[in-house]
Amino acid sequence: MDFQSLKSIEEPFTNSAFFDVTRCFLPLKRFRNLKIPDDFWLALSNYRDILEEFFKENYYYLRMYGSAREFAESLRSYQNFPLSHNPFFSRKIEPYYNAPTFYKSLKGEEFIQKSDVYALLYRILSKTLDFPQFQSHFKTPFDTYFICSILSDVIKYHEHRLFGTCEFVKYDEGLFIWIAEKYARLMDTEIKQYESKSPRMEKFRNDIKSINCQTGSHLFEMLFDNLTQDISIEIDWLFEEKVLKQDIPEYQEWLFRMFSLLNNPSLFLPEIMNSYPSVFLPLDSRNPNGGPVVVRVFEEERNEKFVMKSELFHAFSILYPRQQKPEPEIDVVTTIRYVDVLKKYKDRISKIEFIRVPIQRSKHAAVPIMTNFGDCCIPAADALFELLNRLIFCEQIFQKFKIEQWPLLKTSLSSLEQFFAPYHRSIYFITIIGTRKAEKLVMDQLEKSEKSDKMIVNNVRNAKKDGFTMQNLKNELANLGVTELFPEIQEYAEAVYSEVLDTKKEEFLRTCDLFDAVEMCLLICILKRFPNLQLFLHTQSACHRLPSLFCEYCTKTAKSGKFKNTTHCQLTLPNGSILCNNFKFFSAEEIKDNKMTYFIMDCKDSNKKVQQKKKNKKKGETTSEHLHSLSKFLNNFPDKKIYIRAIPTTSSLEYSDETRRLFAEEALEIIQILLKSRNSSISDNNEKIKNYKEKFKRKTRDTPTLNLAEFWFMLEEFDVDKTRITIVPDPIHELSLLKLTENLRNDTLNVIGPNGDMIMRKEQVVLHLFQIMVSEVDWNRKECQKSPNCWHLRRAMLIRIMRKFAESPDGDYVLLEIATFGVQLLKTEPYSKEHAMESTPLSRLENSNFDDMIPAEMFISGCKEFGLDDFLERSPKFLEFIQEEQSAPAWVCRVRFFYAFAFYLFHMDTYDLQDMVWKEVLLRQPICDKHRGTELEFSCQMLGTKSEEEEEENNESKCCSKCLRTSEMCNEAKKELKMTQNRLEKYEKKARRTEEVESQIREMEVEMKRMKKEMKEREVEVDNKNKENEDLKRKMLKLEAKDAKMQLAEKNHSISQNGLLEKITHLSDQLKFEKERNDVLQSEKIDELTAQLESQKEIVELMKLELQQNEERLNSEIREKQRGFEELRAALRIMSNENESIQRDNRNLRERIASVPEAPPTPTLPESLPDGPTHHRFALLGFQKIKDSLYNKKQLKQAKEMIEKLKSSSNLVEIHQIADYEYYQFEWNLLKYTKEVELNIQRIKETCDVSTVTPLPDIPEFSKRFVNLYWRIINNQPISSSEIEVSDSECFICTEEMTTDQKTLECEECKKVTHLKCASQWLKIHRSCPHCRREMLNPEEFPNLGQ
Predict the structure, then answer these.
(1) Which residues contact 678 (CB under 8 A, 6 or more apart)?
(2) For residue 1290, what are the β-bridge partners?
(3) Which of 596, 620, 805, 1055 is at a distance of 20 to 30 A from 1041, taking alpha carbons?
């Protein structure tokens, strides 16, 4: 078997698989418009012909994807990822269509995902069927399809154990070769057994002949009886939808052949998987050696490499079980750059295997990627492009909206920023569910807007055979109507047309290229209108995906200033918050006396809290005591934010995680505060805190720092609330840096330490020593009168002190006192004292502004005054450049002086000091763009000059190396400045957005308070109104009562005696009227009664007629029943014959079971299969036949028909009772018989042992007495009363037959007879007859004394 071709072979799509992949690949709206050809569902594997017809039928909807071949390639690449059958294909019997993917690790080893191992296993088993020795057993293509479908279903069942994981294993080709060879040997053995005509095989072949088409699936379900119901469902579907629709000749023989070929995999697959759990099973507690811990390194274009954060931390949790496992990320999967992983976690990744995984894409869709939790995701930039493509061509919203509706459209599309936010620092993924949420969110917003879905818009027209021109593209944009919403779109047509022309795949541009051009034009317009989405593409490194899009963020240079600064070292963040430090409220003496610690806070909080403290001032307590330290401040105001400052440790303008550090003392203080705030016992963490304090203990007078990664791990270790911490730049450092770039004095870049001491970086100390010594000491006279080596001794002392500071630990800050002491030591040195100068060219420059223009002659004279004549003579090109320039800014002259001194003082042995000094000099250059450009240009030109004498002297290599290194530093500075601007823009936008959210929250809180107050006022008003209403009600009731009394009084006074007489006369008249009316009613009733009598007579006559008709109808029914009785007689004869045949089969089966010997114990790992089918399968097949014969309850239906006919033939109650009793007995016996058959089937399936089979009860049938009675009644023969007398032949309690030799007990009241033993047990509890409930005594306890 050729494994190289096996890796890359493509499994042809079936029609249903092609349909499923197309449904997932295309947008839903476009997919619903497709037309399915009439013969689409008839083909099995000729999908290429079907594809051509399908594409031709739906060309209008699929033309944007190119040709049919290109569309098929897109589908193929889109579904080519591990476990693609899970989200794409609806049926598990579909084969594996994705080719196994092999990944190279960084060490060059080959890896494969565990789910792809199952795909490779399927290919091995299915391709083994193509061997020449097996081809004769596959007579039709359907045979191969059937076997492969069953194999796919079973393998996918075993594969489901990998769901929710994404694990990899080293690829061992030798293992799979061994699996293929072993399977081929077993298949060969199985084929030989099938071809042999052994008695067992012939017997099994004869048993299969009794299986019909409907029950054929049961045979294969028995083969995989240890699997779940899903396997049975898929096999049943395969038979119903595929097998039964095929015209298979010799169906039973075909079943026997297929069963024999599948008998081997049913045992082979579990054996292989259990033998190699590290290859086939997931890594868990049951499988601790599940393979190496692997993390994928995703490779994007432009050499972008990154890893999933959750996958990396999941690997850490496996290697280091104490670490908390990461939770699955919802919608968004974040990443970390691979470079950052190497820097931050270099001590934890030694046991992790990193494999290269390139991002794959098809046309208009990215190939899904599995997360470590089993979900599917795609890059966020691809999700945005796919969503915009659907809005452009499917929804056509940019054609339906007009210019006056732009605000509504803009509001709807702005909701995309929730999912495609520009503040992510690295590339990230969005899950498939997340992309659907984003699409639904946009569509819901668009549905709310006022747009007409019924509006008719133009679609993209087809291109000509010879392609289209740029003018055609502009005309097409106008035809679509997008120029109204985007008037500027045609400006981009030329650049887009050139790009499409360069990337065309055929000789002429096609319709699909026209779709691409229209899409690119619209995407550029959309991104220009939505800057946040353009910034999002920039942060995701996807700008190059639209070559015609000019990304201003990629070309933008760094802007001046990062933060706004005000007096008292305040720092204004981009979100508007003004930060200050607590030292601004105290003098230096107070800080020293109270031993205060430095911290940063919001100025608003500080002002409010000082005023609040003044109001609530207590005796003996100062108003500003809470500002002495961060812990005291948070004790009083625990809900405030915690700010911690980040200070740089390198001579770089880039504000990155690598260049920022935190003071160790401040970090430990914050951790202790957070531990206390969460009410956790600090004593539990005392040991850890003590260890960290010992680690960061000052071994010298330097101030130790730690990087952000260490701080993060400390927060994770102590498990504190990280959301309360905000890392900000140090206000004093930022202000000092800006001031340094705008003055020419020898100031230092200082920072206040945690305890109030002024500190500075070691690089700043080295620069300070250099600039003090070169600006205040005369280096002109290299030899003096006292010592001939004066100049060399001064240089050696300066280098020695600079070297001492340069060797300080990286990241530590030096006290300003120590740096000042070093300067004083140099100044008091005898040689420096003797050559000190009161005024030098550098000191005179300090009085100038940094942008004052200094003439070239003044700079040259300054060089001569410093004694730098040799430098000017050795650098004629440099001198020529200065003279041509005529004048330069003051700060440039200062840098040139330092360069000249560095040329003199530093040699090859002090190259590191020169590098350190020059970086600090570049750091102090002005931030203005014009000045920076001038300086960089100057540095590049200056460092490129050489003197003729240098080429002849031995110092030539030294100067060249200096120039080269300085040039590299300039280039690095350019890159750092660009990167700094990009990062600052991210921070500013993130901070601005945060501030907007906070301001909205504050406004909402104020609004809520106002609404609560209004609600309380309204409640008070409602209560008052309710009280007033109640008072009014009480008053109204009182008034109504008074009014009623007044009316009664008026009526009483108005009634007189005349009125009473009138009433009496009126009543007498009414009595007379009533008497007359009663007489009339009596006469009417008499008339009605006479009429009723007449109608009853007519009814009696009608009833007589009905009786005659009923008699005739009964006679006809009697004749019909007689015919039915004859039919029942025939049915009973058939049933009796069937019962006799079943009894014979049952006896034969018992004899066969008794004759079969016991099965030998099954070996754990059999090397070969038994000679033919095992005997327990014969027994199982026999019982299955009995169960199938009882499946439709045919016997019970026939019994029910007999009972109903018997009841209809006789009206005697005794006959009905006998019939009901016989039916209940028959039904109960049939149920017991069926249950016993099912229990025997279950026993054989579980144990595969025939000895566990229990004998079956007698076949259920009616009693002979009932059969005789039935035929006599049917034949209208006379029946005596003794024949229908109901006698108790069964016990009423246990329902078993009573024999003459058993003792019985008869009830004196109802004459019911039962077993004496059963009755005794009953009467011990109830003391009454079980039938009539009359009182009755137990004869064993109370015997009859008269007997």
Answers:
(1) 720, 721
(2) 1297
(3) 1055
Indicate the range of 155-164, 442-451, 549-558 predicted with least confidence.
Answer: 549-558
Q: What are φ and ψ of residue 1288, in 5° steps?
A: -80, 105
Unique residue bearing structure tokens 């200070």: 647
Using alpha carbons only, give the angle 1192, 1195, 1201 rounded to the nearest 5 degrees.
Answer: 110
What number of CA atoms fall less than 13 Å from residue 1007's CA on the CB side?
A: 6
Query: Which residues, 6+ apart, have CB-to-CB distance to 914 below 8 Å?
Result: 902, 906, 962, 965
- Mean pLDDT score across all residues of the chain: 76
Strand residue runs (E) in 859-952: 887-889
pLDDT of residue 58: 87
% of the chain residues with pLDDT over 70: 73
Contact 306, 297 (CB under 8 A): yes
CA 670 to chain centre: 35
Specify the residue for token string 């594409």: 55
DSSP label at residue 1297:
B
For the sheet with 751-752, list strands across it: 751-752, 758-761, 813-815
Instruction: State how far the Cα of 231 lies from the Cα of 237, in Å rounded to an integer.
Output: 10
For residue 188, the number of C-alpha atoms closer than 13 Å in the C-beta half-sphere is 9
Residue 39 to residue 635: CA distance in whole angstroms: 79
Beta bridge partners of 316: none
Phi, psi of 623 (to 5 degrees): -70, -25
- Phi, psi of 66, deg, nearest 5: 95, -135
476 by Cβ neighbours in 10 Å (0-12 / 13-18 / 19+) ranks as buried
pLDDT at 648 (0 to 100)? 77
Q: Could you tell me which residue, 685 or 23, shows the higher pLDDT?
A: 23
Closest by Cα among 649, 652, 650, 740 to 925? 740
Residue 1135 CB-density burial (10 A; 0-12 exposed, 13-18 middle, 19+ buried): middle
Is residue 369 within 8 Å of 409, Cβ to Cβ? no
pLDDT recorded at residue 576: 62
What's the Cα-to-Cα distance from 614 to each of 582, 610, 617, rounded to whole Å?
17, 6, 5
Q: Are 378 and 368 in contact (CB under 8 A)?
A: yes
Q: What is the model's pLDDT at position 541?
A: 85
List the strands of the sheet with 110-113, edge to edge.
Answer: 102-104, 110-113, 168-170
Give the list of residues 6+ apart from residue 1144 with CB closer than 8 angstroms, or none: none
Residue in this structure with the two tokens 């972008």, named with its chain if needed = 304
Q: Does residue 522 carry a pLDDT above 90? A: yes
831, two tokens: 């040689």
- Any residues with CB less than 8 A from the CB of 215 and at least 6 apart, and which? 1188
Q: 355, 375, 354: which is closest to 166 by C-alpha?
A: 375
pLDDT higher than threshold 60 for residue 814: yes
Residue type at position 1022? V
Q: Among 26-30, 789-793, 923-927, which stretch is predicted with the lowest mean pLDDT?
A: 923-927
Q: What pLDDT, on the 0 to 100 scale, is given for residue 560?
A: 34
Quick one: pLDDT at residue 518?
Answer: 94
Beta-carbon contacts of 830 under 8 Å, excluding residues fewer than 6 positions away, are none
The distance of Cα 221 from the centroid of its chain, to the nearest Å, equals 36
Of 146-150, 213-217, 611-615, give the range with the top mean pLDDT: 146-150
pLDDT value for 477: 92
Alpha carbon 1316 to chain centroid distance?
72
H or E segment at 377? strand 376-379
Give CA angle at 928 (923, 931), nearest 5°.
80
pLDDT at 1158: 40
For 578-596, the pLDDT digits (tens) are 788 888 777 776 777 777 8
Q: What angle do CA 1023, 1029, 1033 make, to 5 degrees?
A: 145
Q: What is the 3-state secondary structure (H, E, C) of 189-231?
A: HHHHHHHCCCHHHHHHHHHHCCCCCCCHHHHHHHHCCCCCHHH
